[in-house]
Design brief:
Largest sheet: 2 strands, antiparallel
CATH superfamily of the domain at 1-102: Winged helix-like DNA-binding domain superfamily/Winged helix DNA-binding domain
Structural class: mainly alpha
Helix content: 55-70%
CATH topology of the domain at 1-102: Arc Repressor Mutant, subunit A
Number of strands: 2
Number of helices: 9
CATH class of the domain at 1-102: Mainly Alpha
Radius of gyration: 22 Å
Order of helices and strands: HHHHHEEHHHH
Strand content: under 5%
CATH architecture of the domain at 1-102: Orthogonal Bundle
Amino acid sequence: MARSSWLKASAHERVKGLKISQKGLYALEAIITLGHRYGTGTVKIRDIAIENDLPEKFLELILLEMKNARIVESVRGAKGGYQLRRPPSEIHLSEIIRLVDGPLAPFGDAEQLRSLIASDADHRALYEVFLKVRDSAAKILESTTVADLLNRAASRKRTKSRKAKKDAALLAIVDKDGTSNPK
């Protein structure tokens, strides 16, 4: 399975510039991997860790937390592992991030910002902007499901495949000398 260059980057490089913890990123990567395999049975922690280059012991703790939140379920035994408890279309990114990291945006939770708006007249306008940013981020994360991410990835893969076929057709027109062979 091809992974984007973003996913191939080290976890530290991926997190740099994002306001999400490494734990949150690992949780999202694990959920996406389970989403890819939804309906095909369980996936062993080791396989998820290897596929995403994640530390296995840390991943184990994250999956246990998601199991307790009823997002994933585990199956014991030789064919055991983890699987999504619900379809990818019913799991929103906001649910995962809130579970693992708490508030969704780098500006704290909405209630904290509303309290600052009400109590700090000198900085009210600034806190109002922060609240709008927070609300926009929350809206995007609340409306984006794991299935949405899987569909975008599949769409990108189809687009690359069509482009590769076009490029191959163009190359077939060119002679071995590098000259064009008009038809």
